[in-house]
Amino acid sequence: MALRSRSNGDKKDPIPLLAMTEIGIGQMLGQGGFSLVSPVEQIQLNEVYDTSDEQATARAKFASHFSNHQEASSSTGTIPNFVLKTLRKDLPEEEYIKGIIDLAIESEFLSELRHPNIICMTAMANSDPHESGFFFILERLEITLDQKFDHWRKIVGDNMGYWMGPFGYCCAKEKYLYQTWMERISIARDIGNAIYYLHSNRIIYRDLKPDNVGLDGNRQLKLFDFGLAKKITPSDHRDGDDLYLLTGNTGSLRYMAPEVAKGESYNQKVDTYSFGIVFWQICSLQTPYANLTTKTHSLKVILGGQRPKPDRSWPNGWKDLMTRCWDANIVARPEFDEIASYFDEQVEDLQHQEGEVPSRATEIKAKKRRKKATPANAQLDGGDTTIQNGGKPGAVELV
Fold first, then answer.
1. What is the pLDDT of residue 288?
2. Which portions of the sequence form the region Disordered (predicted)?
3. 244: part of which helix (H) or strand (E)?
4. DSSP strand E in the chain: where?
5. Can you give 296-364 as a three-state secondary structure string?
6. What is the pTM for the complete model shown?
7. Arch. (CATH architecture) of 144-398
8. CATH top class, domain 3-140
9. What are the backbone angles phi and psi of residue 18, rounded to the nearest 5°?
């Protein structure tokens, strides 16, 4: 990804506003803590909703774009390209209110953001974002980064060769192992570019994790789910330093910076911490802090400073960057301009290494995906503890 892609000066087209009666949706694809996602199968515009010439043009343009994609999908047998996200109707009152706020925040961010590595909101409801029937339409993603890990584990497991005791593995198929490294470092680069773009617009993401990173049908990386993102304003600034008085305990515990978990002031470098953990996971293909309970995680990681162990075979530059990213001292963590530039260089270097991979890359064994933990056992393994907008430790949701 070229450096110039980190900012986007293109003029923003107006977001088409649609009524739910103009949209035909298919069977639900999935649901999150607050929302439902369904495929968009039909758009039939009603001119009564053309509230201005600008909106009439935007709506017609989207309908034509949708129709072209549907025809292409039908001819190639691929899946539809758009999904509709709306609020679940089975939530208790307190969660229902949180969900409405979450959806409104996400739509507000996505209506302003334009970047090749951030999911695109293509249309939204013509109603108040704080009403229960509000929705928006997104480009459809085929797979999350978390699911991509399973794919890479299988490739590595199938191509790592044979175990020769003290001699290690032999007969590894280096070509396929190299391809996975190229994909993985390219993924790290694209995440870095997306977060750099957000920080350039004074936005903290606050929930960077593999479940919130996806790939579309063209294998283009897309960061999504902006319900916990926060625009930094001068009123948030704490006097005397570069920290801000923001909500604590926000995000997914496995990837959450210690200062957020402890309810302290923080800044955009909480995303740097999360990136360090995700980058370790990209390299190791293992789940960070597997088998730790929330209590043990708090004692060992948040308070004790324990971090995942980088493999000795990884390039020193990679190890140095990830350990700086998750440094307990927020000042010591790098900014994303450095991170994004570094991975631009790493991808370029890998492209010229003609299939060379880290020396022990073949030893990454394919692992079966563990079942997600239940709230009863409150473990980090197999699930992330997500604390929404100031929830208290102990009242956690495992996702």
1. 96
2. 352-399
3. none
4. 17-18, 23-25, 30-31, 35-43, 82-87, 121-125, 135-139, 143-144, 162-163, 169-170, 203-204, 213-215, 221-223, 230-231, 251-252, 385-387, 397-398
5. HHHHHHHHCCCCCCCCCCCCHHHHHHHHHHCCCCHHHCCCHHHHHHHHHHHHHHHHCCCCCCCCCHHHC
6. 0.84
7. Orthogonal Bundle (1.10)
8. alpha beta
9. -125, 155
| C-alpha span between 151 and 164 (Å, rounded) | 25
Do residues 140 and 26 touch, judged by C-beta distance below 8 A?
A: no
- Region 322-345: what's the mean pLDDT? 97
Residue 267: φ, ψ to 5°: -140, -165
Torsion 208-118-361-367 (CA) sign: positive
DSSP 290: T
**Which DSSP letter does residue 4 get?**
G
User: Mean pLDDT score of the chain, rounded to an integer?
Assistant: 84
Geometric angle at alpha carbon 101, from 96 and 102, rounded to 5°: 95
Q: Read off the pLDDT of residues 125-177 as tens digits, 9 standing for 90 and up.
A: 999 999 889 999 999 999 999 999 999 998 887 776 554 445 445 555 677 78
Residue 166 or residue 205, greater confidence: 205
Domain boundaries, the chain: 3-140, 144-398
CA distance 207 to 277: 12
